[in-house]
Design brief:
This protein has one domain (about 5-110). It contains 2 helices and no strands. The chain is mainly α. The longest helix is centred in the last third of the chain and has 69 residues, at about 45-110. The model has no long low-confidence stretch (mean pLDDT about 90).
Length: about 110
């Protein structure tokens, strides 16, 4: 059974969701650690600081993930282009070598 490209896309979406969820949990944990260092905050202030921290942190993480995805697409395009040029060169060298070898073989047979 051949894997479907849509299956890969679905897996990437699930992975992205899980990474995003983990990042939110990490931000919440760090926000709690941060507010624990500020014992003079009221409960409402603590909750607000934690909320703002999580929002800012997840926005920054989202922007970072977006930049990584864009760079990955750029690299994929760049490497695909390089691969195609290398492949064309290899085919050209192989064809040239084959024709030269055939020419030398033909010339050797005629000179016999």
């Amino acid at each position: 059974m051949q894997p479907d490209k849509n299956d890969d896309h679905g897996l990437w979406r699930i992975e992205g969701y899980l990474m995003g969820h983990a990042e939110v949990e990490r931000a919440r944990s760090q926000a709690r650690s941060f507010t624990d260092q500020l014992p003079w905050l009221t409960t409402a202030q603590r909750e607000e600081v934690e909320r703002v921290y999580v929002v800012e942190r997840t926005a920054a993480a989202h922007a970072m993930f977006q930049r990584i995805c864009e760079r990955a697409a750029e690299l994929r395009a760049e490497y695909t282009e390089r691969y195609l040029r290398l492949k064309a060169r290899c085919v050209a060298v192989t064809a040239t070598g084959t024709f030269l070898l055939a020419g030398v073989g033909t010339l050797a047979l005629r000179l016999r």
